[in-house]
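ARCHIVE CARD
Drawer: 12
Card no.: 0347
Subject: one protein chain, sequence and derived structure
Cross-reference: see card 0346
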Amino acid sequence: MGQFHTSDFDFALPPELIAQHPAPERSASRLLDGRGAQAVDRVFRELPALLAPGDLLVFNDTQVVKARLYGEKPSGGKLELLVERVLEDGTVAAHMKVSKKPPAGTVLRMAGGFTAELLGRWPDAQGPLFHLRFSADPYELMAAHGHVPLPPYIEHGDTAEDETRYQTVFARNPGAVAAPTAALHFDEALLAELDARGVQRAAVTLHVGAGTFQPVKTERLEEHVMHRERYHVPPPTAQAIADCRARGGRVVAVGTTSVRTLESWAQSGAANGDTGIFITPGFRFQVVDGLVTNFHLPRSTLMMLVSAFAGHAHVMALYRHAIAERYRFFSYGDAMLLARTEAA
């Protein structure tokens, strides 16, 4: 395997292919079947026929919270918070967009009538995030006054459509600031069809952080500092994977977040934790055999992950095909189905 650089994961994307709204129906999105040498254009609702009875789909059941909050400093200067995580003591770690950063001890007035006291930086004095204490329960305040944290490439403000469609139909554990987008294509009818076909389902939780949208800024991959995200693999899912292996089925991860969770668990042996796993070509996958995933940002860690999984040359060829065939890209875009290649 040759040495890869960040520029190897770059591609030119026509801006009009960045999906600004979801497809009218979740399962009506397009599906690029990239398991073979030749790409096959399909519709997402065909997925059950592409899986075998006894296969196991692993979903990420995280729930996107309305993590974007607006407010102002005592001086009247406007600011925006993006809550990255609610900490165990009820305080929060957040990104702050403001013209001049306020000092620790400042009490911010937030839209909705609550306050946020700035305690310092997080996770340490030089940390990239801000540590704040809200005047009431953070989850309740976000639900009442927050906005859907749409990705930076979606150009409209959040709407009622985004409240329902930037959320999976099985989301149940609040904590993500970005949706596990491959799972957005599943609706109740499709899940029922998977059940009828004998395809098994299990769930993990990984609370997706804003770092998922960050491009890699170093040309040498090993110099990139990976963002960290909280994950959990429940005992029934560990058992479902063991059962799938025993019957000769395939473990198919729905989304790169499910891959990161399962491979972190396999690597560390810990069912709960914070993962900073950085999957690049040459990585040895221990759990995942198949992957349902959306199309990712150029030069991103997720482009590197799918290239590690299905082979760099193959993935780049699939992206060229997707662009030529006018697939819709990123969070509200179309999906692809990949098989693991040992030559990745």
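Annotation on reverse: The mean pLDDT is 96. The first strand starts at residue 30 and ends at 33.
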